[in-house]
Automatic annotation (TrEMBL), chains A, B:
The entry's keywords: DNA-binding, Transcription, Transcription regulation
Domain HTH cro/C1-type: 14-68
Residue ranges of the TM segments: none
Entry GO terms, CC: cytosol
Gene3D superfamilies in UniProt: lambda repressor-like DNA-binding domains
GO molecular function: DNA binding; DNA-binding transcription factor activity
Protein name as annotated: XRE family transcriptional regulator
Amino acid sequence: MKNEQLIKQLGLEVRRRRLDSGLSQEEFAEISGLHRTYVSGIERGDRNPTIDIVFQIAQALRCSPADLFGGDEE
Amino acid sequence: MKNEQLIKQLGLEVRRRRLDSGLSQEEFAEISGLHRTYVSGIERGDRNPTIDIVFQIAQALRCSPADLFGGDEE
């Protein structure tokens, strides 16, 4: 799978888990310490975050970094 | 776990899988399309790569991105 597709897939997973947590983008931005527009860009697959940001997102979603890459579907 | 520890853990996992594949850092750098010193920095946990680089590394190691974050140990 191409990198762009993987980045889009990550964004969809972040969005899915955020919604499952009942959080708006504003609430999630506050919890994760990221700007709302950055969260929106990640969910659309328009950003290429560094892994420390991915760790920050996983922590805010109370999951492991591996979970964000489909790690729990294996 | 703090981000620095997670980044160090990722580096150790990349190193472990590279050695398991019988690849030197030079060979792995060539396969992954990254510079050898960058590979060395990632393995030491001194770099904060963007996720597209992490995908590139996973592809070169023939594993999933989740595997690099301990995804296959669950």
